C-alpha cells in the first residue's frame, strides 16, 4: 500500500502546531510546560486560551487517528512479530532516551530561570536516574494502543484489515458517544491529572480516533473523504467552535462565576466534553479534504515529513531554551510567543535533520 503524500504533509503541520502550542503555554496560555512566563493582560490571555483550546480539541487526536491508520497497514505488511519489534524500537527507544536524557535536560534548562546552574542541575537529575516523560507520553500511549491492537488481531485470528467507511450519521453518533464518555471519564480523572504522564481525561477521543484509524485502514477512507462530507463537518466546527468561548465569557466575566471545564457535575464540564469531538471531527475532516493532492510527492514537503517525528521528540529542550532567551526581551508576551514559536519550529526541524544523520537514527526516527 502506497503512503499518501498529503497525510505526511498533515503530520508536518500537526508537529508545528504542537511546538506552537507549547510556546503559547510558556507565555501565558492555560496548561502545563517546563517554563512558564505568565501574563495578566486579558488581551493576550483570551487569544492564548482560544488557540490552545482549539488545538487540544483536535491535534493530538488527529495524531492518534493517523497512528491507528498506519499501524493497521504496518501490521498487515509486516506481520505480528515484526510489527511488535518495530513499535518497540520506534516508540520505546525514544521514550527511554527522552525520559532519562532530554527530559531532565529540559527541566534543567527551565531551572535556569529560577537561578539553578544548568550543568550541575542536569548532572544531579541524571545521577539519581530522574525520569521525565514530557511530550513522549504520546509514545507511551501508542505502545499501549499498539499492544491492544496486537491482542485484538490475535483474538480475531489475524483477521484482515477493517474496511469501515463512516457515514454522516455514524460520525454524529461517534461524536456524541465520545463526548458522553469524556464527561463520565472526567468525573473520575479530570483533565490536568496524570497517571504515568498520561492525562486520562482526554483519552476518550484518543481511543475512538485510534480505533477508527485502524478500522478505516482497509478502505483507505482517510484518503477518499468526499468533499460534501468534509464541508458539512467543517461547517459544524465553525458553528460549534465559538460557542464554548461565548459561554465561558458569559459565565466568567458577566456572571462572575468560575468556568471550570476539567471535570465534575457542572454544565461547563458537560459543554466542554461535547464541544471537543464536534470541533475535532470538523477540523480533521476539513484538513484531510484540504490537504489531499494528486500526483507525485512534493520534493519541498518530503524532507520535512521525514523529520517530523524527530522534531517532535527534540523540541522541548530547544523551545524551552529559546523561551528562556525570549523572556529577557522587553516585548509583550504575545510577541515573545510569536518569536519563540517561529524559531522553535525552525530549530526543531533543523536539529531533527542533523539527528537523522546519526548512525542508526533513521531506523528509529
3D architecture notes:
This protein has 365 residues and is an all-alpha fold. It has a domain at 5-21 and 58-294. Helices cover 70% and strands 0% of the residues. Helix 1 packs across helix 2 (42-111) and helix 2 (42-111) packs across helix 6. The longest helix has 70 residues, at 42-111.
List the helices and strands and how they pair.
Layout: H1 5-26, H2 42-111, H3 118-127, H4 137-155, H5 168-188, H6 203-216, H7 227-254, H8 267-291, H9 302-326, H10 333-355
Helix pairs in contact: 1-2, 1-9, 1-10, 2-3, 2-4, 2-6, 2-8, 2-9, 5-6, 5-8, 7-8, 9-10
Count of strand segments: 0
Enumerate how many helices there are, as a single number.
Answer: 10
The amount of helix comes to over 70%
Q: How confident is the prediction overall: mean pLDDT?
A: 90
**Helix-strand string:** HHHHHHHHHH
Q: Shape, please?
A: globular
Instruction: Detail the poorly predicted runs.
Output: none
Q: What is the terminal separation in angstroms?
A: 21 Å
Strand content of the residues, in percent? under 5%
Q: C-alpha Rg, in Å?
A: 21 Å
List the keywords.
single chain; 365 residues; mainly alpha; 10 helices; 0% strand; globular
Short recap of the structure:
The chain is an all-alpha fold and 365 residues long.
Amino acid at each position: 500500500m502506497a503512503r499518501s503524500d498529503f497525510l505526511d504533509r498533515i503530520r508536518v503541520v500537526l508537529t508545528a502546531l504542537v511546538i506552537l502550542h507549547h510556546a503559547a503555554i510558556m507565555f501565558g496560555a492555560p496548561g502545563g510546560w517546563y517554563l512558564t512566563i505568565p501574563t495578566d493582560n486579558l488581551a493576550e490571555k483570551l487569544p492564548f486560551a482560544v488557540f490552545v483550546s482549539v488545538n487540544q480539541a483536535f491535534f493530538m487526536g488527529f495524531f492518534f487517528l493517523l497512528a491507528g491508520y498506519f499501524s493497521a497497514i504496518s501490521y498487515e505488511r509486516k506481520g505480528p512479530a515484526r510489527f511488535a519489534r518495530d513499535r518497540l524500537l520506534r516508540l520505546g527507544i525514544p521514550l527511554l532516551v527522552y525520559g532519562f536524557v532530554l527530559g531532565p535536560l529540559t527541566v534543567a534548562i527551565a531551572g535556569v530561570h529560577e537561578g539553578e546552574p544548568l550543568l550541575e542541575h542536569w548532572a544531579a537529575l541524571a545521577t539519581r536516574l530522574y525520569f521525565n516523560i514530557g511530550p513522549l507520553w504520546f509514545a507511551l500511549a501508542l505502545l499501549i494502543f499498539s499492544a491492544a491492537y496486537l491482542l485484538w488481531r490475535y483474538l480475531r485470528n489475524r483477521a484482515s484489515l477493517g474496511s469501515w467507511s463512516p457515514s454522516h450519521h455514524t460520525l454524529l453518533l461517534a461524536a456524541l458517544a465520545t463526548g458522553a464518555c469524556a464527561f463520565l471519564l472526567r468525573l473520575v480523572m479530570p483533565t490536568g491529572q496524570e497517571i504515568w504522564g498520561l492525562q486520562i481525561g482526554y483519552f476518550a477521543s484518543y481511543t475512538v480516533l485510534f480505533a477508527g484509524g485502524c478500522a478505516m485502514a482497509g478502505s483507505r477512507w482517510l484518503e477518499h473523504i468526499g468533499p460534501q462530507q468534509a464541508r458539512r463537518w467543517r461547517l459544524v466546527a465553525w458553528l460549534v467552535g465559538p460557542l464554548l468561548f461565548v459561554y465561558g465569557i458569559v459565565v466568567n466575566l458577566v456572571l462572575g462565576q468560575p468556568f471550570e471545564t476539567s471535570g465534575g457535575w457542572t454544565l461547563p464540564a458537560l459543554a466542554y466534553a461535547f464541544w471537543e469531538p464536534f470541533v475535532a471531527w470538523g477540523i480533521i475532516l476539513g484538513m484531510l479534504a484540504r490537504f489531499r493532492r494528486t500526483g507525485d510527492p512534493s520534493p519541498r514537503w518530503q524532507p520535512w515529513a521525514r523529520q517530523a517525528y524527530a522534531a517532535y521528540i527534540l523540541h522541548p529542550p530547544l523551545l524551552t531554551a529559546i523561551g528562556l532567551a525570549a523572556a529577557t526581551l522587553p516585548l509583550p508576551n504575545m510577541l515573545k510567543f510569536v518569536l519563540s514559536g517561529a524559531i522553535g519550529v525552525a530549530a526543531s526541524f533543523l536539529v531533527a535533520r542533523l539527528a537523522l544523520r546519526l548512525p542508526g537514527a533513521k531506523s528509529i526516527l
